[in-house]
């Protein structure tokens, strides 16, 4: 009997899944370097606030301002906001900005609203007690303000709370992302607190290409995000960089673009995972993008970079909330080809451009390949709607893949695919 290697990967926040790969077939378990987290997170936040990049200190920036808004990412992100935001509030207080004049606007993009319980868990009791907290609603047209277009023609609409504020600051994390290259920076505004048309335009710009912009710091989508944020008068960010275990390595405060550039370089250094060969079979876990497939789809792009054309991607994800809570209608076309979806967008047969853009990206990864799905939250019917093939276990999916690719097929595993940046060496 052939020797096997047992591999265990995260499955949601509290579970793991184990499976066996023939040792002779295992090309790599692809992980980023073991980068130590900051030993004292509060001290690291203080360090970043005391050493702004490309601007003055936060207390000086808010001095004399009447009110302020903090844009913060939601519970689909690992940013330690319950530690970061209280220290930001203290620094703003030192500049004369009172808590009662500060609003925390949750940068949901097109995600569902966070519940009171989720808000308390994400931001902490101190933040909940100190400032007003509001969920962004991308479909509340009365709550948006139109600001014209970017030079590239992207229509700009953003949450009025942001635009009307005397001062604004975005709080989030920087990690590889298939649409703008890296999350973080201006992404807290677009799509974070933007309207539907703005988000649809930038998503189409990033989703029609293959390979994606994953890991590319400067690209056309990032330029659009910066333009939208600047138009909305959001010029400053506080961003964290996490290691592959989701623990914060370093934080950055400063100018929207200058601080993001420094953070993106650190994230690329922290999360790059070198590999030497593309594999016939790639097993990719969705942690920490686990809530719904709208998040878990981020698993696909690092896997796409590692899998051979014609290979198999085994996507392992819990997805307890299904495919897409706020975009349920997209399952009518998620199994279509990229060309069919794109043509439906251009002819306005599909009006939800944001979901169509992501469906195009999924289809581009899927074309010429089998994507096998192992999930407790997505049914066999859901898998069919996505154009995937369902399996009850990773072992069963591997057995099927070996039957199709042969007994010498090479296997690569991405335990935390959404926040891993494969780099071919």
Short summary:
This protein has 425 residues and is an alpha/beta fold. The chain has helices at residues 41-50, 58-62, 81-94, 116-130, 160-164, 196-207, 220-231, 256-271, 293-296, 300-306, 338-346, 353-366, 380-386, 394-405, and strands at residues 4-11, 15-22, 26-29, 68-72, 102-106, 132-135, 144-149, 155-159, 167-173, 176-177, 181-182, 236-242, 248-255, 272-275, 279-285, 307-316, 370-374, 389-391, 411-414, 421-424.
Furnish the topology, listing elements before pairings.
Layout: E1 4-11, E2 15-22, E3 26-29, H1 41-50, H2 58-62, E4 68-72, H3 81-94, E5 102-106, H4 116-130, E6 132-135, E7 144-149, E8 155-159, H5 160-164, E9 167-173, E10 176-177, E11 181-182, H6 196-207, H7 220-231, E12 236-242, E13 248-255, H8 256-271, E14 272-275, E15 279-285, H9 293-296, H10 300-306, E16 307-316, H11 338-346, H12 353-366, E17 370-374, H13 380-386, E18 389-391, H14 394-405, E19 411-414, E20 421-424
Parallel strand pairs: 3-19, 4-5, 4-9, 5-6, 9-12, 14-20, 15-16, 15-19, 16-17, 17-18
Antiparallel strand pairs: 1-2, 7-8, 10-11, 12-13
